[in-house]
């Protein structure tokens, strides 16, 4: 975080504030962990901080310290709106455009509170008084660690805060294997372990809690996987019926797209998940090398993210969405088959 941003944040936090810490819709480990950790430290600094999420988060994250303090907007709309309206300051974490909050976007745009943005996704919108944006960072949780360092609050990292931050870094780096995992990331992790993180337990809580239904749904996803060798691409489809048949719960499809990316020769992987309630097809993109799924998602599917991991959506049917996707691939064949 640069000196100007640090100075601005210190100015904003110079006196006790009513603060709302917001994550994105369909929050993942990085969003939940970063918001909880930041709110915990802000409260230790004598601010009044509350975490608000647009909707619920996966069960495999509900063991995290303080997670029962999170207010879920779509379950407590009026309370959430009042918190946002009364806030002096709002931190937005792990997203950089207010439309990523779904129905929370309206009250967030109506508030007079000032914003602080902390995020590692590309092309942030211009809405915050202080912006800490770094696309080279492994995760927003790593950024929160550096944010705390910049404002002189590292000493307030308890074992609970360390656990929250470690969880977000671990999940967003694919257990420290993605390219954005740097030497600095590992130094941060080392300090968090020194602060009391039980890393083996965290890994077990996140990755070793598969239900029979989730394993069966993974089997369906793998059976549905199609490989297009001429484009070095693989994609997976999951229909609403297949989700219903396996008693789908939020988070059950987490990581499924990585199986497609793991196929030998594949550099571009996609999963299409039908969501009849929202009348969309949710899409996750992954890539290896220089092919930018961020640009692909932004161009075709109202989405975005990182160079090698992004998301988007389609309002067409599942079949029509897949047909359209296949029709787009020829215009990217050279990018996908370039060996350089």
Structure write-up:
The structure is a single chain. This protein is of the alpha/beta class and 340 residues long. It has helices spanning 3-12, 29-44, 77-86, 105-110, 140-150, 159-172, 183-194, 199-207, 212-224, 240-245, 256-261, 293-300, 318-328, 333-337; strands spanning 18-22, 48-53, 71-72, 89-93, 114-119, 130-133, 226-228, 233-238, 268-275, 280-287, 304-305, 309-314. The strands form two sheets. The chain has a six-stranded parallel sheet with strand order 3-2-1-4-5-6, with helices on both faces. A six-stranded mixed sheet has the order 7-8-9-10-12-11. It has two domains: 3-207, inorganic pyrophosphatase (n-terminal core); 212-337, Roll (Diaminopimelate Epimerase, Chain A, domain 1), CATH 3.10.310. A hairpin with a 4-residue loop joins β7 (226-228) and β8 (233-238).
What would the keywords be for this entry?
2 domains, alpha/beta, 40% helix, six-stranded mixed beta sheet
List the helices and strands and how they pair.
Blueprint: H1 3-12, E1 18-22, H2 29-44, E2 48-53, E3 71-72, H3 77-86, E4 89-93, H4 105-110, E5 114-119, E6 130-133, H5 140-150, H6 159-172, H7 183-194, H8 199-207, H9 212-224, E7 226-228, E8 233-238, H10 240-245, H11 256-261, E9 268-275, E10 280-287, H12 293-300, E11 304-305, E12 309-314, H13 318-328, H14 333-337
Parallel strand pairs: 1-2, 1-4, 2-3, 4-5, 5-6, 8-9
Antiparallel strand pairs: 7-8, 9-10, 10-12, 11-12
Helix pairs in contact: 2-5, 2-6, 5-6, 6-7, 6-8
């Amino acid at each position: 975080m640069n000196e100007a941003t640090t100075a601005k944040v210190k100015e904003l936090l110079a006196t006790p504030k009513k603060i709302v810490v917001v994550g994105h819709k369909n929050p993942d480990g990085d969003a939940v962990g970063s918001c909880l950790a930041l709110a915990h430290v802000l409260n230790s600094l004598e601010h009044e901080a509350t975490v608000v999420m647009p909707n619920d988060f996966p069960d495999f994250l509900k063991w995290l310290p303080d997670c029962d303090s999170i207010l879920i907007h779509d379950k407590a709309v009026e309370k959430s709106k009042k918190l946002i309206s009364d806030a002096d300051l709002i931190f937005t974490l792990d997203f950089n455009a207010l439309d990523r909050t779904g129905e929370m976007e309206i009250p967030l745009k109506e508030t007079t509170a000032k914003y602080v943005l902390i995020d590692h996704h590309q092309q942030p919108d211009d809405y915050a008084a202080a912006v800490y944006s770094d696309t080279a960072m492994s995760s927003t949780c790593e950024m929160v660690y550096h944010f705390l360092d910049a404002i002189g609050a590292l000493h307030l990292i308890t074992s609970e805060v360390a656990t929250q931050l470690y969880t977000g870094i671990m999940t967003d780096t694919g257990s420290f294997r993605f390219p954005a995992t740097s030497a600095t990331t590992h130094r941060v992790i080392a300090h968090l372990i020194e602060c009391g993180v039980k890393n083996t337990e965290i890994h077990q809580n996140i990755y070793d809690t598969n239900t029979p239904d989730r394993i069966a749904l993974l089997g369906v996803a793998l059976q549905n996987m199609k490989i297009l060798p001429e484009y070095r691409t693989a994609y997976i489809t999951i229909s609403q019926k297949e989700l219903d048949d396996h008693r789908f719960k939020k988070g059950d499809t987490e990581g499924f797209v990585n199986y497609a990316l793991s196929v030998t020769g594949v550099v571009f992987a996609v999963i299409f998940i039908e969501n009849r309630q929202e009348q969309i097809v949710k899409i996750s993109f992954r890539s290896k090398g220089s092919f930018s799924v961020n640009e692909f998602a932004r161009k075709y599917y109202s989405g975005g993210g990182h160079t090698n991991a992004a998301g988007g959506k389609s309002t067409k049917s599942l079949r029509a969405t897949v047909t359209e996707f296949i029709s787009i691939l020829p215009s990217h064949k050279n990018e996908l088959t370039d060996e350089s």
